[in-house]
Write a structure and sequence with these properties.
Layout (H helix, E strand, L loop, with lengths): L1 H24 L10 E6 L4 E6 L12 H13 L6 E3 L18 E3 H11 L2 H12 L2 H14 L22 H11 L3 H7 L3 E5 L7 E5 L4 H4 L3 E9 L3 E10 L2 E8 L4 H15 E5 L8 E5 L5 E6 L4 E5 L6 E6 L3 E3 L7 E9 L2 E10 L12 H20 L5
Parallel strand pairs: 11-15
Antiparallel strand pairs: 1-2, 1-9, 3-4, 5-6, 7-8, 8-9, 10-13, 11-12, 12-17, 14-16, 16-17
Helix pairs in contact: 2-3, 2-4, 3-4, 4-5
């Protein structure tokens, strides 16, 4: 009996331990003090955390994310970088680069200073240079928002100072930041701990500005971000972090503890997600051949990408076949034929090159017009099937 009791006791302890550690291993959602927040996975286009994330709210200086990308795209489309001349109408209350009338500096350096210290004067300078007027620039900002599919964002000022009708949502801000992070210059500037601005006039003048985004220094995976504050908006923060190929964006609006909240949100997201290399079976993939010694060409699919998955889920991976319905002989082994594009929840995750797996010579045997016609339509039908078939995992 004593042995039986010991066995039962050990069993219960083991079960309790398994339950405890199994429960602890599951990622627990962090407590976030923001009124509205969102954690967005760029790899999958999904929101992992959110609260009041579609409510229209003031955004303060996180507005400057949009101002910066429009300034960058404006001069990237020119052959020569725009040099901005500072005028008195560019002055603004609040945070500043302390630019003086008559000073001149390149647009890229102006954008850099604006992102580092949230200069309202710099935001106004970008707006008047790119848009011609504050109204014209706000139209450009809203056109860009519409092009990104954002229906709950409206810009009035380039700086984010409070204004009637100036609002966004946590979800929309995350998508704006995701778009901006695809621009290499934006990413390079916004990830810098500091920048030194070189003025065109006065000649030789330089000024160093330090990034106000503390997460760049305090959180090892943070690669970009923008702070903001007004009495109406409270503390606002947008930040981007990357780890092992996974890119996350956190947004908090009205948050008294934003630095810690962003760290905890990122830790949660990275604990939840992982990258797994696809191993889809394309061994049966073929293309039809016209005028060859064989009617069907075997195809090789190159290296497949890794996709972001949540726990035990394989995600929602679909494949788009960019392969011609048929190819003309002769075909040599290794010849590029097309590619496969992989989408994870509708977001492009990568692609593989498709090449010929064999050599097929031209069929020199004489054939009738009817035989050629039949062969062509057989190839057309076979090619349609090859290009739309579903792969096996």
């Amino acid at each position: 009996m004593k042995k039986l009791l010991k066995i039962v006791s050990c069993f219960l302890v083991i079960c309790a331990a398994m339950f405890f550690f199994g429960y602890a291993a599951e990622a627990e959602e962090p407590a976030v003090s923001a009124y509205a927040y969102a954690l967005y996975c760029v790899n999958t286009g999904e929101f992992l955390l959110s609260q009041n994330a579609d409510e229209r709210l003031p955004m303060a200086s996180t507005t400057k994310i949009m101002t910066a990308i429009l300034g960058i795209e404006a001069f990237q489309s020119d052959n020569e970088e725009t040099v901005v001349t500072i005028t008195p109408e560019m002055y603004a209350e609040g945070s500043s680069m302390y630019l003086a009338a008559g000073e001149q500096l390149p647009m890229s350096e102006l954008v850099g200073g604006m992102l580092m210290v949230s200069g309202n004067d710099a935001a106004n300078a970008v707006a008047l240079t790119v848009g011609g007027s504050f109204e014209g620039f706000s139209e450009l900002m809203n056109e860009k928002a519409r092009s990104l599919g954002l229906e709950n964002t409206n810009f009035v000022t380039p700086s984010g100072l409070d204004a009637e009708g100036h609002y966004t949502t946590a979800c929309d801000l995350a998508k704006i930041m995701a778009y901006c992070m695809e621009n290499n210059m934006f990413r390079e500037i916004d990830s810098s701990p500091s920048i030194t601005v070189n003025f065109v006039s006065p000649s030789g003048k330089t000024q160093t500005y330090y990034n106000e985004n503390r997460l760049i220094r305090e959180y090892e995976y943070c690669v970009a971000g923008k702070t903001g504050y007004t009495d109406k908006a409270g503390r606002t923060l947008v930040s981007c972090a990357e780890k092992d190929g996974i890119r996350l964006i956190a947004v908090t609006l009205g948050d008294p503890d934003d630095w810690n909240d962003h760290k905890n949100m990122f830790d949660y997201g990275f604990g939840l997600l992982s990258l797994e290399k696809l191993e889809m079976d394309f061994t049966s993939l073929t293309a039809a051949v016209v005028g060859g010694e064989k009617d069907e060409l075997k195809l090789n699919v190159g290296e497949q990408p890794a996709v972001c998955v949540d726990g035990d889920s394989d995600g929602n991976v679909t494949v788009e076949y960019e392969i011609p319905r048929f190819v003309y002989a002769p075909v040599s082994e290794g010849t590029p034929i097309g590619c496969l594009k992989y989408y994870n929840n509708g977001v492009l995750a990568g692609q593989s090159e498709v090449t010929a797996a064999e050599t097929i010579a031209y069929n020199e045997a004489p054939t009738s017009f009817l035989e050629n016609t039949i062969s062509f339509f057989k190839s057309l039908c076979a090619g349609r099937q090859a290009a739309t078939g579903e792969p096996r995992r």
